[in-house]
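Structure (tokenized):
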């Protein structure tokens, strides 16, 4: 019987807090950038969340240019909160602000992909080890197991978009439950960038059945408190995933995303 859950569920795409989890302003930066009151902060946060969602879904593709005026019109807001949001997105490496030309979405190359996964492999494997050693790991892994069940259900329904959302939530919650705020903060932009790749290749790869079962094996190792096995499973999974992504990108002669 699965242990009762006392761990608070992390925000997901159905909750208002999800946009903040996907990429929130750092408190100090927020106060410094937007000192004029709650309304201005709220509009800038809205712009930030909406533009970032367009980038992560590849609706704004790597290398695309868009004028500031077009963005303001698209979002239905003035350019002041928009500019504040763009500065934050540039600080996170998602865009480049180009004088008199608006913004350019920073593309990801194959080399970028390798670097992202080298770092994520190490940091997420460390997170898995940390969870394996926590006293409340059974509650945490019960929550992560629920997400794996959602991934399985999505595959059974042939709903790849639903699978991708659940998969993203799994990885964000994995680093969150490691209990290391700096690790979570550092992983955030890398997870955003890897999500762009995952969405782009989602329908170019085989159904991610094996990937989903790798997640289930990882959860079991963490629940059993086997930190070494959790580390090994996660490293093997990341290597397998990277090899598959590289094969797709090279086979289709894709130079950037």
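Design, position by position:
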């Amino acid at each position: 019987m699965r242990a009762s859950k006392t761990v608070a569920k992390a925000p997901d795409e159905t909750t208002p807090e999800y946009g903040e989890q996907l990429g929130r302003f750092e408190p100090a930066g927020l106060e410094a950038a937007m000192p004029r009151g709650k309304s201005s902060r709220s509009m800038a946060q809205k712009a930030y969340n909406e533009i970032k969602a367009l980038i992560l879904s590849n609706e704004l593709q790597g290398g695309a240019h868009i004028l500031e005026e077009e963005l303001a019109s698209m979002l239905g807001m003035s350019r002041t909160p928009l500019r504040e949001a763009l500065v934050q997105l540039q600080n996170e490496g998602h865009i480049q602000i180009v004088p008199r030309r608006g913004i350019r979405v920073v593309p990801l190359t194959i080399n970028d992909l390798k670097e992202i996964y080298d770092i994520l492999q190490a940091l997420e494997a460390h997170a898995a080890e940390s969870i394996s050693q926590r006293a409340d790991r059974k509650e945490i892994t019960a929550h992560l197991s629920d997400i794996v069940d959602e991934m399985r259900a999505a595959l059974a329904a042939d709903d790849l978009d639903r699978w991708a959302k659940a998969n993203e939530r799994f990885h964000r919650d994995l680093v969150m439950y490691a209990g290391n705020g700096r690790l979570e903060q550092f992983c955030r932009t890398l997870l955003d960038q890897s999500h762009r790749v995952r969405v782009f290749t989602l329908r170019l790869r085989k159904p991610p059945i094996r990937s989903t079962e790798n997640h289930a094996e990882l959860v079991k190792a963490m629940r059993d408190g086997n930190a070494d096995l959790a580390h090994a499973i996660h490293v093997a999974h990341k290597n397998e995933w990277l090899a598959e992504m590289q094969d797709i990108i090279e086979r289709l002669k894709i130079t950037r995303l």
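Reviewer-requested clarification: The CA atoms of residues 3 and 188 lie 29 Å apart. The chain has eleven helices and three strands.
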